[in-house]
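Here is one chain, start to finish.
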Amino acid sequence: MTLITSPPPTTEGSRMPQPPASVPHLRLERPLEGRDAEILTPAAISFLTELHDRFARRRHDRLAARERRRFEIGTGDDPHFRADTAHIRDDPSWQVAGAGPGLEDRRVEITGPTDPKMTINALNSGARVWLADQEDATSPTWRNVIGGQLSLFDAIRGQLSFTSPEGKRYEVTAERTPTIVMRPRGWHLPEKHVTFIDRSGRELAASGSLVDYGLYVFHNAHALITAGRGPYFYLPKIESAEEARLWDDVFSFTEERLGLAHGTIRATVLIETLPAAFEMEEILFALRDHCAGLNAGRWDYIFSIIKTYRGRGARFVLPDRSEVTMTVPFMRAYTELLVRTCHKRGAYAIGGMSAFIPNRRKPEVTEAAFEKVAADKRREAGDGFDGTWVAHPDLIPVARAEFDAVLGSRPNQLERRREDVSIEPGQLLDLRIGLPVTTAGVRGNVSVAIRYLEAWLRGLGAVAIDDLMEDAATAEISRSQIWQWIHQDRETAEGDTITRAFVECLLDEVLVEVPRSDGDRFDDAAEIFREVALRPEFPAFLTLPAYATYLD
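Its structure:
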């Protein structure tokens, strides 16, 4: 069936004329500005409409299934390895598609947002792969959403440059640029600036996932293939094999619609939710024709555990965020299971991002960051990971040295099957660390959450705070721990009872101490923090109410 969509506006400030309600279509809620029309072309809008017409209902069904499962776990039904999919896990014959062109060696990947300056820095970084992040490292303002698409469009065509307000010019100068793997927003996030009107005339906010993915793949798939690489994606926040299957169907439809060979699109799935940790093989199987690997998304994984078990009692309460390291037992179990699962099925296992970053003005901070990152990457390489993430170009040589020491000239270590690893469900759920919550830990969470939210409201999604790289995932840990500590009647090691009043006092102290300026967003950040950390209800993601109410 041919879908009819009206073209987007051709002059600044105009809006799309609308087709009849019985015809599925999209409506832009913002006028086009600048170069927007290069991305929001009539053909691209038509493709987005097709994606929503085919997959929007299934997306909503999967989100509803998430909520049901979260309720079940919250009321005592712990996750487990599924009995109904045991035949998938027990079948030794299947393998995933594996690396596509340009993804053969992934030993160091740099992550970051897609504004022009950060895009150029990433492409000049010397990393093997760039995670072009439209998700947790990007504040989803409309300008960032479309601006990121323009940056990628220009970068893929070798025409990207940027001049800063101070007059400094940035250009791509690297002889070999990293392979781009784009991360769209997760299934849960809407795009409020685009409305989908379905066949019944019902109006719904478009899917952030389908908007980000659809615009990128529509404009760039063929150019990427011509350049010897391909349309590659990181898939965030997946909670089940059924959600992975939905993405697989999106990929297969896209390949048919755009004239691509089946399997051209490749995806790496972030295992960053507790339910997904129990379905790694099933997720690989669902995406097997399109799957390149899995990533250990450590920060969102910790957040998912806190969120899922926030009401289950004292034994599920974690200590200060800084004490929840990759070497505590439940995190070791999760990462070792990931490597074993990946290598069993021919998938790459990609390690996570250490939050420590260098500070060029403080040599002692930089030296400490290098030591901590080196230890983290040494552990990952020794455990069998095929690559890892860094958040800063200066950390690339540090991470590369650790992986070079293990890999040598080999592109991966898929041959390390890790058959010595055997993980039981209880190991993934054993949250005992044996350390207390401290008053400094509570205060640190409040401070980080407020400062990150303020930057996010100004359009910044990845922010250096206290020599750590913070993004939406680490802010989620900070606010969810506060909520859980309050509702589980925790007391700090110093004897302070963690109540809403106690946290409000800390919030007031933080707001007094932060540098203020005309036009800052600290007051709005404080209101968001109160909504997502101090109220009786627990929003599943802080970005949902913050985006709906405060972000342009």
